[in-house]
């Protein structure tokens, strides 16, 4: 008997389109001999829709989900990756792919992620947490990166090199979140590390990927076809080992499950954590699946491992 898998895409956030692409790719790549895929979509307005894109609401979606064996949430960002869909599955008693409520919420909150990383000895960029109430007291003294605390796909992220650019950068970040991080610019190579927790509990870390970007690796750079990915990243063995160690330490400290992409700056002093994505882009051409492919795990095999490792 085939395993019935609900694949949820879309979402009520700024990563809606990216999530639709990821969900469609996942749904299309799950082996039809093993899996019966049931697609569900969450609209930008929060409306749940069935495979024919007919609005069915949350109650209708609950009926569909109850008829499935496993839920595969492929909703990036707030109201999805942040633990919201994990909570829905937990309350409904449904097995689901990926990280649970707490790690999803912690990893989506970049400030909380920094605190967890520091607690286990992983370096992070020096920075301050800013709210609308405290922003008026902030003064520019050196180049910084301004980013929303809990938005994804690098949206609302700006590098500020001159004082006059600080307020517009804060405005762009506050448009997406009511808390903003202002971090020192870190000089180093941008290197991403993927981590998979297998069904047997072991961790698999494939070759790392380096991003060569001119300035901030923002939304346009990620999805506009202009990104220069180097895979595998050319790393000294000591650097590769340090990155693997840092990635798995943060993965474990947050309590992640399934797959996560842990992004670093590789500096002369070693890895500096940038952020953690507990539901990274999941098309076959996204960074994490490409890393696993480079490590000998094909896309369909990765998806199969994720379904088999679902929370029970």
Automatic annotation (TrEMBL):
Location in or out of the cell: Cytoplasm
Name of the protein this chain belongs to: D-alanine--D-alanine ligase
HAMAP family cross-referenced by the UniProt entry: Dala_Dala_lig
Domain ATP-grasp: 114-308
EC code(s) of this entry: 6.3.2.4
Function, as annotated: Cell wall formation.
Pathway as given in its UniProt record: Cell wall biogenesis; peptidoglycan biosynthesis
Keyword field: ATP-binding, Cell shape, Cell wall biogenesis/degradation, Cytoplasm, Ligase, Magnesium, Manganese, Metal-binding, Nucleotide-binding, Peptidoglycan synthesis
């Amino acid at each position: 008997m085939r395993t019935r898998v609900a694949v949820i895409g879309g979402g009520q956030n700024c990563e809606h389109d990216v999530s639709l692409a990821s969900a469609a790719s996942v749904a299309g790549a799950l082996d039809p001999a093993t899996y019966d895929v049931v697609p569900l979509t969450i609209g930008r307005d929060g409306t749940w829709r069935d495979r024919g894109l007919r609005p069915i609401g949350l109650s209708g979606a609950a009926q569909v989900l109850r008829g499935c064996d496993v839920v595969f949430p492929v909703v990036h960002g707030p109201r999805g990756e942040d633990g919201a869909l994990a909570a829905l599955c937990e309350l409904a008693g449904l097995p689901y792919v990926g990280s649970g409520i707490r790690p999803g919420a912690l990893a989506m909150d970049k400030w909380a992620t920094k605190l967890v990383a520091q607690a286990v000895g992983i370096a992070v960029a020096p920075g301050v947490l800013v709210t609308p109430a405290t922003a008026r007291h902030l003064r520019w003294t050196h180049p910084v990166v301004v980013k929303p605390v809990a938005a994804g796909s690098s949206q609302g992220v700006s590098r500020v090199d001159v004082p006059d650019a600080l307020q517009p950068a804060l405005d762009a970040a506050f448009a997406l979140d009511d808390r903003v991080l202002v971090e020192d610019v870190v000089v180093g190579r941008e290197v991403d590390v993927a981590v998979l927790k297998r069904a047997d509990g072991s961790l698999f870390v494939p070759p790392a990927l380096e991003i060569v970007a001119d300035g901030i690796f923002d939304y346009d750079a990620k999805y506009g076809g202009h990104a220069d990915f180097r895979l595998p990243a050319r790393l000294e063995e000591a650097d590769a080992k340090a990155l693997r160690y840092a990635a798995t330490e943060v993965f474990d400290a947050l309590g992640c499950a399934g797959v996560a992409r842990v992004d670093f700056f590789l500096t002369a002093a070693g890895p500096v954590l940038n952020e953690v994505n507990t539901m990274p882009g999941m098309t076959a051409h996204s960074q994490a699946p490409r890393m696993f492919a480079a490590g000998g795990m094909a896309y369909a095999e990765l998806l199969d491992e994720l379904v088999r490792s679902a929370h029970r």
